[in-house]
Amino acid sequence: MKLAFCHASSLPEGTFVKYHTHDVLEIVYYTHGEGEIFLDGARSEIRPGVFHVAPAGMKHEQKNRSPLRAICIGVGQSGLEDLAGAYQDLHGIVRYHAERLIAELLAKSGAWEIVALGIVYEISGLVRRIIQQPENVAPDDVVERALQLIREREGRVSVEELSTALYL
Prior knowledge:
The chain has 168 residues and is an alpha+beta fold. Helices cover 34% and strands 33% of the residues.
């Protein structure tokens, strides 16, 4: 597996991104805004918590009805090529890891390349799990994420901050 690109994208209301393709599989996670995505002509709604998977060479375009923010991740040899489409991340699990990946790439702390690649593997596994077994991503993963946030902040986190971070 190889990370080809990763960035956060913010687009103003009414932006139309014309049909295009990538040389690697792209995962786009929508964190804010509404619109629609067309993957090889198939239409899906964009809203917070939706992500799409577009394998290398798949034509896709996007229209947004409001200001939109997304995290775009390009991955080579991901093993997700059979999962093209748009999906709902009910508990924000993929978002949490996508935001961790962005933070890791920005910080570039010691061994950041290895850590970033580990996060990419996690994202790929979670995407496959959500798509193939959505019932297996419920409460246990949310509790684990809550505990991880508490550990990261050394216990200095309020219930309100946790509920916001976990989309509850």
